[in-house]
Design a protein that fits this description.
It comes from Paenibacillus faecis. Keywords: Cell membrane, Ion transport, Membrane, Potassium, Potassium transport, Transmembrane, Transmembrane helix, Transport. This is Potassium-transporting ATPase potassium-binding subunit. Belongs to the KdpA family. By secondary structure, the protein is mainly alpha-helical. It has a domain at about 25-205 and about 210-275. The protein has helices at about 1-30, 35-50, 60-85, 100-110, 120-125, 125-155, 165-190, 220-225, 250-270, 275-305, 305-310, 330-340, 355-370, 375-395, 410-435, 440, 450-465, 480-510, 525-555, and strands at about 200-205, 210-215, 400-405, 405. The strands form two sheets. It has a two-stranded antiparallel ribbon. A two-stranded antiparallel ribbon has the order 3-4. The longest helix is centred in the C-terminal third of the chain and has 33 residues, at about 525-555. The radius of gyration is 23 Å and the shape is globular.
Length: about 550
């Protein structure tokens, strides 16, 4: 039955890919379409209010500066509110302001679409902060990432310009995130997810004790949390909390919410490239890698803990430690794989309590960071590997490599090398450094192999803009707040800037005609080569540390 549940959700996703990918294409192709009659007037009003008289195309440098400057303004706004929330309205529970290092970590976390939380939302934030900072940054960070991805696609597919960042940014809100978030939020409210501004409830238990029950504007945050692949929970328990995710039905809705947009982007790319097979090839590579890693997690969790089996205890139901009974193994494994593949970071079970082999799946998906990915990140990174694969194949046959009719030369490969190398560097270097400092070691609750996995997961989650917590770390201190904050910044912006530069470089090149010797990138052979490139270049980079962590822990359980 568990496998049937997983197949059913994947089948629903496949039905959504083409219509949603087509809608994304018409949204960002800037060609006249029927949605202009609905959203055009609103968007023109926003442009006028923002002083945008002409929506001219931008160079990659101007697009990058516009993207960064917008994010800087949002960071400053969010930081001030978090520091001053104690004196601001909509604070019925009298929350005080956040301290400096936690405010820095939180605002960086949400502007980079990471949403790593070193606090519990129900005890650390006022309703105003939840809405004006957390929910607001969930919209804007997702829109920023999607805009950059669309600009990169335009450059790679040879459009006249990368587009205008502010136009893409506004359209991402008006035509995609706001309508979808409203629809999902209303659905969640109908399925018993709270949406209120009432203060925390105080009730009496059956034993006569007083208990505090946190409520608030949960449904509105949950909708964009998943649609924007953000992941920050209203409560510390995230989507394992019954108020955030009360039933198997809401669980499936949340899985599809965080998965459908990233899964539709490859199809959008194929439409931009005027070759749908290109898009399906990228999608197939992502799905094959996803299914392989999902299968590992589902198998490991279904088999249970070897140490429990050795004690003669019946564990036929699998490893249910840290999982909600209402979801079971199947929906917990699928949620784990989707949330780390789509770099969402929302969790409906505690990854720290998964079996060692099961823990490899979320780690690997964040380390690869190209299996669907967040809003545009996965597509950008997979296309980066596609260009690398074409380059390597060109070298092997002694031909100048071409991708979509444009030559791949030294400048593009240097920029791609920077984007590929920065990811393992900002994961592995801080992981090693944390074991060399008293501040780092003092926060690790589990010694040995599991402690290594805890630290590795924290930095992998930060670098991949995922934000899910492995838990077990005492991470709300200056050391972890600052180091993970810096990793989130580097992981988000270096690769984005580098790939915008690649898009700008390709856009300036004259297309070359296709010949009999042109290496095709729209068939099954290239999909296989792409998967191989990802595994050889991406996966093998992290294999040693995976062996030292989860695999070594698994071997000790036998």
């Amino acid at each position: 039955m568990g496998i049937v549940q997983i197949i059913a959700v994947i089948a629903i996703l496949l039905l959504l890919v083409k219509p949603l990918g087509t809608y994304l294409y018409y949204t960002f192709s800037n060609e006249p379409n029927r949605s202009d009659r609905i959203f055009g007037g609103i968007e023109r009003g926003i442009y006028k209010l923002g002083g945008l008289k002409k929506l001219e195309g931008m160079s990659w440098k101007k697009y990058t500066i516009s993207f960064l400057s917008t994010n800087i303004v949002l960071v400053a706004f969010g930081y001030l509110i978090l520091r001053l929330q104690g004196g601001l309205p909509l604070n019925p529970n009298s929350m005080g302001g956040m301290d400096q290092s936690l405010s820095f970590n939180t605002v960086i976390s949400f502007i980079t679409n990471t949403n790593l939380q070193h606090y519990s939302g129900e005890t650390g934030l006022s309703y105003f902060s939840q809405m004006a900072v957390i929910t607001m940054l969930m919209f804007t960070s997702a829109a920023s990432g999607l805009s950059v991805a669309v600009a990169f696609v335009r450059g790679v597919t040879g459009k006249k310009t990368l587009g205008n960042f502010f136009q893409d940014f506004v359209k991402s809100h008006t035509r995609i995130f706001l309508p979808l978030a409203l629809l999902v939020a209303l659905t969640l409210v109908a399925l018993k997810v709270p949406q209120t501004l009432q203060p925390t409830l105080e009730v009496s238990t059956l034993e006569g004790q007083s208990q505090q029950i946190a409520v608030g504007p949960v449904a509105s945050l949950e909708s964009i949390k998943h649609l924007g692949t953000n992941g920050g929970g209203f409560t510390g328990a995230n989507s394992s909390h019954p108020f955030e995710n009360p039933s198997p039905l809401t669980n499936v809705i949340e899985i599809l919410s965080m998965w459908m947009l990233p899964a539709s982007l490859p199809y959008m790319y194929g439409l931009f490239a005027k070759n749908k097979r290109q898009g399906w090839g990228i999608f197939s590579a992502m799905m094959i890698l996803f299914v392989l890693l999902l299968s590992l997690n589902f198998y490991a969790e279904s088999k249970g803990n070897p140490a429990i089996h050795a004690m003669g205890i019946d564990a036929s139901q699998g490893s249910m430690e840290g999982k909600e009974v209402r979801f079971g193994i199947a929906q917990s494994s699928l949620f784990t794989a989707v949330t780390t593949a789509a770099t969402t970071g929302s969790v409906n079970n505690m990854h720290d309590t998964q079996t060692p082999l099961g823990q490899i799946t979320p780690l690997a998906l964040m380390m690869l960071n190209n299996v669907f990915g967040g809003k545009g990140v996965g597509l950008i990174n997979m296309l980066m590997y596609a260009i690398l694969a074409v380059f390597l194949c060109g070298l092997m046959v002694g031909r100048t490599p071409e991708f979509l009719g444009r030559k791949i030369e030294a400048r593009e490969m240097k920029l791609i090398a920077i984007a590929i190398l920065i990811h393992p560097l900002i994961i592995l270097a801080p992981t090693a450094a944390s074991f060399l400092t008293d501040l780092g070691q003092g926060s690790i609750s589990n010694p040995g192999y599991h402690g290594l996995t805890q630290v590795l997961y924290e930095y992998a989650s930060s670098a991949a803009n995922n934000g899910s917590g492995f838990e077990g770390l005492a991470d709300n201190n200056t050391f972890w707040n600052m180091t993970t904050g810096l990793v989130m910044l580097l992981g988000r912006y270096i690769s984005m800037i580098a790939m915008l530069a690649v898009a700008g470089s390709l856009l300036r090149k004259q297309p070359v005609p296709e010949t009999a010797g042109t290496f095709r990138t729209d068939n099954g052979l290239f999909t296989g080569i792409l998967i191989g490139t990802v595994l050889i270049i991406g996966a093998l980079t992290f294999l040693p540390v995976i062996v030292l962590g989860p695999i070594a822990e698994h071997l000790t359980l036998r």
